[in-house]
Amino acid sequence: MADYIVVDRGNEESKIEMLEKSYDCLKKGISIMIFPEGTRSLNNEIGFFKRGAFQLALEANISLLPVLIDGTGGILPKHGLIFGSGNHIRIRVLDPVHPDSFGTESPENLALKLSQLMTSGLDELRAQKNSR
């Protein structure tokens, strides 16, 4: 009902279909949300970014809107089935980033640059939390 675009990560045809559906949405002006790591972190740190979201941004010539979400690991740990309580979640929406601003046409380089930007933003978000 939510019109999710699914991907079977081990299936190359599924990846291609996901990219095509995502591109079609973007060209229609429909925003999509992608978690570029492809999975939740085991250590509450930003993991390796896969290239798909960045390939889409370059091909569609659209900006990315980086969103940081911190604190969800205690609510439902990876592979967990029981929700925790008493956790605080912090969310920060960073400024939109157009791929041109990084001077690269490589999805891998764009993924690396955005990962660095988001890691720095997460460090700042956590520093603000700890200074209170």
Characterize the structure shown.
The protein has 132 residues and is mainly α. It has 2 domains: 1-32; 34-130, no CATH class. It contains 3 helices and 2 strands, in the order ααββα. It has a two-stranded antiparallel ribbon. Helix 1 runs parallel beside helix 2 (52-60). The radius of gyration is 16 Å and the shape is globular. The termini are far apart.
Which helices and strands, and how do they pair?
Layout: H1 12-27, H2 52-60, E1 67-70, E2 90-93, H3 107-130
Antiparallel strand pairs: 1-2
What's the gist of this structure?
By secondary structure, the chain is mostly helical. It has two domains: about 1-30; about 35-130, no CATH class.
The oligomeric status of these chains comes to single chain
List the total number of helices.
3
Q: Taking Cα atoms only, what radius of gyration do you get, to the nearest Å?
A: 16 Å
Q: Quote the distance from N terminus to C terminus.
A: 41 Å
- Supply the helix-strand structural class: mainly alpha
Q: How many independent structural domains?
A: 2
Average pLDDT confidence is 90
Q: H/E order of the elements? A: HHEEH
Main β-sheet, spatial strand arrangement: 1-2
| Silhouette | globular
Strand content: 5-15%
Helix coverage percent: 25-40%
Q: Main β-sheet, in a few words?
A: 2 strands, antiparallel
Low-confidence stretches: none
Number of strands: 2
Descriptive labels:
3 helices, single chain, mainly alpha, 132 residues, 2 domains, globular, 2 strands
